[in-house]
Amino acid sequence: MPETQIGTREEWQAARAELAKLEAEQAELDRKVTEQRRQLPWVPVEKEYEFDTEDGPKTLSELFDGRSQLLAYNIMFGPDYEIGACPGCSNLGDELDATRLHLNHRDVTLICFSRAPIDRLVAYKERMGWQFPYVSTNGTEFPFDFGLALTPEQAKEIPEVKAIVNDPPEWLEDWGRQVGAKLEDGLREAPSFISFARENGTVYHTYTVSAPDPFVAPYHVFLLDRTPKPGSEEPRAWRKDEYPDA
Mean pLDDT of all residues in the chain? Predict the structure, then answer.
């Protein structure tokens, strides 16, 4: 933890003015990134996908629920997870519901994907108290086609994955126990945001971003960046009903 500086109001004001310049530069860069993101080419989705939902099978187009934009978060909850979804992804899931209403009123449907079977997703959703549509990609090629998951063969070909599976840090071993999966299986899921657009009956893939990008993190992380003390460097996350003091 960096040493705390104690100063006068005048010293604080001067330092705050300098920081404001940097924040303005960051805001301008964020604006440029958003502009460039929206200039990415749209790629038509030519393959037909059918997903299991709480309301029965649905196509990708039907997931839009009548809107022209679809934003989905891929929660790490693979078919091999015996206990539940990734706690970090679950933290983000807790915070998505509050934004869903506002996105819906801006022509965006917000959902979540996972590869676990739909009955397990529904049970976990009920446990977490989530309201967003939770869609299973189990048994489809969709997660592999769009980089939301790796096949066992693909995972074995990635040196970083092999290295961390062979010599995992303690927190990752704890994570494996939290989700109830072997690391070689659990780490094949990619926490990601993915977006699609629909125009004139055609669905287009427009954007994907995956961890460790900062956007793929619970929103409370961004709030903690505004607090005076740095957060813990321990990467372990807790589900909201599993905190030690709960």
Answer: 94
